Amino acid sequence: MQSLPEYERLSLRMMERSRLAKGFARQVELTAGPSLDMPMADCEAIDIGCGYGHMAAELAGMCKRVVGIEPNEVLAEHAARTVEERGLTNLEIRRQTIGELDDVEAFDLAIMDNVLEHIDDQRDALRRLSRCLRPGGVVYILVPNKYWPIEVHYRLPFLSYLPLPLATRYLRASGRGTDYRDASYAPSYRKLWKLLGERPELQAKLTLPGDVSLSEGGGSVVYRVGIGMLRRFPPMWALSKAFLVVAKKAGN
After folding, report:
1. What integer pLDDT is reported at residue 217 of this predicted model?
2. 224 Cβ partners below 8 Å, 6+ apart?
């Protein structure tokens, strides 16, 4: 059986995600909801890289139908158990990668929450993400900044700055992991906008969370100061810890 990703084994992430899932789903509603052409209750949504399935389960309580896709066997099985335990008839869990996503104009809302940094072919991922949306559909993307000084998965200074071979050596020396590849694809500000620019049908914008208090770490003074700086000085996005993108697919 496939094992958990190394960064998942470093902390109590399952418990953390379970506890925070309701707030994360509400954040999606508050941040992406205003761009939708319909109420969330009428939406069919896809949660790409749904992990343990906790947020997908919360979204199932807000949306008409939700599909969660997850490539890791252990995480996908946990998500499937969550569906069964909660009796969610409108949530489907698929064990697949985004590279296997062939749905066409099937969803009104797509969520990619801290997933893009795990995908090597990001160009194809965004193409498939766009293709699965109906015209007028909305995508919510949250992804860490490659150049944030403390790498977000292993919490090692400047890990993401290094070429992959050196990053893996650093990770092994730290005792926190053995291979950095899986989490090594976080984009820079410039790269993210280059990727989004290749999808002109997605009208993308960087946006602030709909409710700062629902964000992980949103209660800290540092976080709130950072949000205030982004609000007043949008060029500061290039130095942000993460990028939050809402994009709407052009209609026919």
Report:
1. 67
2. 212, 218
The low-confidence residues of the chain, meaning pLDDT below 50, are none
Q: What is the gyration radius of the CA atoms in the chain, in angstroms?
A: 17
| Homologous superfamily of domain range 6-146+186-249 | Vaccinia Virus protein VP39 (3.40.50.150)
Tell me the C-alpha distance between 236 and 27, whole Å: 22
Q: pTM of the full predicted structure?
A: 0.93
pLDDT at 10: 60
- Helix residue ranges, H only, the chain: 6-9, 13-32, 54-60, 73-86, 122-132, 164-174, 189-197, 221-232
Residue-range domain boundaries for the chain: 6-146+186-249, 156-184
Instruction: Spell out the residues 6+ positions from residue 172 whose beta carbon is closer than 8 angstroms to its own.
Output: 178
Using CA atoms, how far residue 207 sits from 28, 93, 243, in Å, is 12, 29, 8
**C-alpha torsion sign, points 197, 38, 18, 98:** negative
Using alpha carbons, select from 77, 45, 37 the residue that is nearest to residue 61.
45
Give buried/exposed letters for 79-116 (b at 16+ CB in 10 A, else e).
bbebbeeeebeebbbbbebbeebeeeebbbbbbbbbbb
**pLDDT score at 251:** 81
